[in-house]
Design a protein that fits this description.
The chain contains 3 helices and 5 strands, in the order E-E-E-E-E-H-H-H. By secondary structure, it is of the alpha+beta class. The protein has a domain of 65 residues. A hairpin with a 5-residue loop joins strand 2 and strand 3. The protein is rod-shaped, with a radius of gyration of 34 Å.
Length: 125
């Protein structure tokens, strides 16, 4: 855990922290003395509670945005594949049930005589 040494603002897309006065800053993330989790310090490239050199900060933000985009694409592909798998599973479940019911009904009709008289004739034969 580290402590902020200046006011830090989160960009609108949440991909980077910027110093106070930066036009990209959208939401106050931390004020001087606020605790910042180590995971956030690593994610945003903070050094002892301060932003790193601007060139390094830009590289970190760009990498963060690329990682978010890659994650979004992976989630979309997963959900698309899941929908296809669910649809295929639903079709497979319906087909055997319909076939089984239809076949069972056909067998019963073929084996069972239609009327009482037909049953008597079937017994006599």
């Amino acid at each position: 855990m580290i402590f902020a040494k200046q006011r830090l603002f989160l960009t609108a897309d949440g991909a980077a922290l910027v110093a106070e006065g930066d036009p990209a800053g959208a939401t106050l993330y931390a004020a001087p003395g606020d605790e910042i989790p180590a995971s956030a310090a690593e994610k945003f490239g903070l050094v002892d509670g301060d932003l790193p050199d601007p060139a390094i900060a830009t590289m970190i933000a760009d990498d963060g945005a690329a990682a978010l985009e890659a994650q979004r694409k992976a989630e979309e592909e997963f959900l698309s594949a899941q929908r296809v798998a669910d649809e295929e599973a639903g079709e497979k479940e319906q087909a055997p049930a319909e076939t089984k019911e239809g076949k069972a009904g056909e067998d019963k009709e073929a084996k069972a005589p239609a009327t009482k008289g037909a049953r008597s004739r079937a017994k006599a034969a």
